[in-house]
Each structure stands twice: as structure tokens, then as C-alpha cells.
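does this look right to u?? calcium ion version
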Amino acid sequence: MQINNLRIKACHSLNAASLSLMLAVVCCASNSCSHTGEGKASAVKLILDTDLGPDYDDVGAFALMYALEEQGKVDVLATISCNRDERVVPCIKILNAWYGHADMPTGAPEEGYSSVSEAPSMTCWQEDLHWPDSLCINYGHFPGCAGARAVGAETENAVKLYRKILSRQADRSVTICSIGFYSNLAALLTSGPDGNSPLPGRELVARKVVRLVSMAGAFPGGEEFNLKLDLPAARLVCSEWPGDVIFSGFEIGERVWTGRRLIEEAARYEGECSGNPVVDAYAGSLKYGELESGHNSWDGTAVLIAICGADPYFELCRGRITFAEDSTGSNGWQEDPQGPHSYVRFKLSPDRVAAAIDSITLSHSKFAYLKQ
Ligand SMILES: [Ca+2]
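got this back:
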């Protein structure tokens, strides 16, 4: 994973952190943020599309999402894997169940489900980090492990689940947050009519989805994992997605370090299984070089933007993502005030964005012991 060192050009003037912004962050972290800058009181209807495995920041993204769900900011419609690794769905279900949503609709790629590409199968890229195995074993949901047991609803074909969920929602009401590969989204766009909807995929998305918020790309240019791993899907989604797309690029999460507060509390526990899978994933991973810093929150920033909006944390730079002609997966950017895409730049400092993510995450009642 790498990005180039191109200096990011200013799309908007940057203001110094003002008292009003400080208050905005404090307010949001204490359960009063509005979402997407539209001032709506209703919860964001969200589908989370995740690769949950190569990196553990997806676990933090789940924790942030469910903290905001408890605050009434988001109505989570489904959690869908874009990764064929056999540990992903069990880990998704472990997290859903732990947050009280064992019946959350869950989808996954199936063989032959897409005419565009085959979804990648990826687990941790660092040998020392084996949190997906630990979670599956310690929480007893790994197929084949002793005491394995089914959790929640049956896992559905990712595209069929997308189509079912979208067809039942009001027009332009659903936000999709993608924190993995674009495999499912490309398969959805190219899907045909089915029993859930007579609309082809692209028209179904255009009618039902208000926004795609995605951790993907590097801005204003570079190579990034989520786009690179399924490049045919990335190219198709970025050229044909029929609506607003907001990217939180590699360079954003690269500077937002979270989770250390979870670890500070992990000392309360002995052994590898604390009973809290979020703490376990971070405790089992941060010890490999990130105990002092915390871990990058690439995916957490996308969830934050999808539910709370970019403001006050980020500003939007509008234009259009481009791809190199070669097979590197490298992306570029064209500035265009009328373009279909936006990428975010820091409006608050990375440390303050990280503090907001940690504060919201730990505001969930599952972490009430921290206040004791
Ligand atoms: Ca991810």
C-alpha cells in the first residue's frame, strides 16, 4: 500500500480551528451532531460494505457505527462483506451480535454473483496479527471450531440482499458506506431485474441511494488498496455510479490514529478473550508496534462522514476520480465544481478527528465501565 507524495492543492481556504469548530466537535462527540450537513433529525439509513480482515480498522468502524446507532443517528439496514475470506462473515456476525443486532441482515459474495470481477479473498496481511481467527475461535462462531454455532440470520447473496434492502426503502434515502473493495457495488450496478425490483441495478441505485461514502483512493493521486485489489470493479463503479460519491482517501486515515484508549482499558482483562470483541481485536493487534500511537482509522473516517457528514471535520473537494491507463490501480483527480465525486481534506486537525472518533466510540453503553 502506498501513495505518492504529491502535495495536495487547496480546494478551499483553510481556516484556523476556531472556537465554533471546537464546540462543534465537542457537541458531536457528546451526542448532538447533525448528519450530512442537511440538518435532518431522522437517522441515516445505512448499508455498510466491508472487507473486515486485511486490516482491523474495520472493527473500529463497526464500533463507531454502533455507537452512533445507539445515539439514534443511524439506522443500520445491513452489513455486507465484499471479501470471500471465510472468517469475514463470522466476524461481522460476532460484532453485530455483541452490539445487540444478531439478526442484522448480512450478505457476502457468492461464486458467479458478478459479471464484473471475482471478489478478493484476503485476511490479515501481517502474520503476527490473527485477530479474525482469535475472534472466531474465542467467540465460538468459526465454522469447524469447537462449539461453533450459527449466529443471527442466514447470510445472503450480497447482490440479492442489496436489491432487497434498496427496493424496500424510500427513494433517495439510503447511504452506502464502503470500507472495502468495490466488488459488490460493481455487481449491484450491473445486476438485472429480479423478484425484488423490476429495475436494473444502475437504475435501482439511482432511485434509492442518496450517497456513497467510501474509504478508497489516494488524493490528489496515488495507489490505494481498496481500489487496487479489485480494479475492474473500481473502474466500473467510479465511472458509472449514478450519484454522489465522497471519498475518504488513504492520506486521511493515515493521519487519524485511534483505539489507544481501548487498549488502556484492556489491562483490566487477563488472557486473550475479554468478552469484548472490539477490545480483543485492538488489544491483539496494537501490541505489534502501535501501542503508543493507536491504529490508523481509514474506515472510521468514512463511517463518520457517512453518518455525521463531513462538516465540521472535513471539507469537500469536488471533481472526478481518474485511473491510470496501466494495471497499477493508481488513481488521479480532476478538479471540477460540477463533478460527481468529492474527496475530503482535513478541516480540523487529524488529532481532533481521532479524538472525536474515540469519544463517540466509547460513548456506547458497552463501554460504560470506562466511566466507573
Ligand atoms: Ca476495510
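Residues 50-51, 55, 58, 179-180, 299 surround calcium ion (CB under 6 Å). idk if thats expected tbh
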